[in-house]
Design brief:
The protein is of the alpha+beta class. It is built from five helices and four strands; from the N terminus they run ααααββαββ. The chain is globular, with a radius of gyration of 17 Å. 26% of the residues are buried.
Length: 186
């Protein structure tokens, strides 16, 4: 039997069950609005969105690996490309680009031209410190942690704040060696 070839983000997106984009966008907006009401402080909402995203990312990586047939990435650069080209397409229907690598190859930017989470959104003046899509940074951080990469993910640019694109900076803090719960007896 021939090995299964990795699938592109477009192929996976075409075969994945989807929900209505407007329903998804409005539901996410309602959730953010409820967090703003419950927590009152914008920084607390940012932290809660990041934590929610982290919890999603921890679970989402299994689905991603099962459906994409992507093999183990060689390094952090390849991992970032897979997230941008396959992961974002598979789960959000958009493709991102990776750029602005540092000399060590441990920090990059993932740039989204389009972001379905922000359709119909305008931030009021009272929410200018809000990173409305902070759930995405948590998803990336959680997913990467499950594949042994401890990262820090922060927003550099946000179109809701007047920037020309959505840009996430992903910084590899350390590659965690995989630990096995037991040793094989030989």
């Amino acid at each position: 039997m021939a090995p299964v070839a990795p699938r592109s983000g477009d192929a996976i997106f075409a075969s994945v069950e989807r929900v209505n984009a407007e329903l998804f966008t409005l539901t996410y907006g309602a959730m953010v609005r409820q967090l703003l009401t419950d927590l009152e402080e914008v920084e607390e909402v940012n932290n809660q969105l990041d934590q929610m995203g982290y919890n999603i990312g921890v679970r989402l990586v299994d689905e991603f690996l099962a459906k994409s047939n992507v093999s183990r990435c060689v390094d952090f650069k390849e991992t970032a490309e897979v997230i941008a080209k396959v992961g974002f397409k598979m789960f959000l229907g958009v493709t991102a680009s990776v750029s602005n690598w540092d000399a060590e190859g441990t920090t990059c930017s993932i740039i989204l031209e389009d972001n379905p989470l922000v359709d119909f959104v305008e931030l009021p003046d009272t929410c200018q410190g809000l990173y409305y899509c902070n759930i995405l940074s948590g998803v990336i951080r959680g997913a990467l942690e499950m594949v042994s990469m401890k990262t820090e993910v922060t927003w550099l640019r946000d179109m809701l704040r007047g920037d020309d694109a959505f840009e996430l900076q992903v910084k590899l803090l350390k590659q965690v060696p995989e630990e096995y719960p037991y040793k094989d007896d030989e």
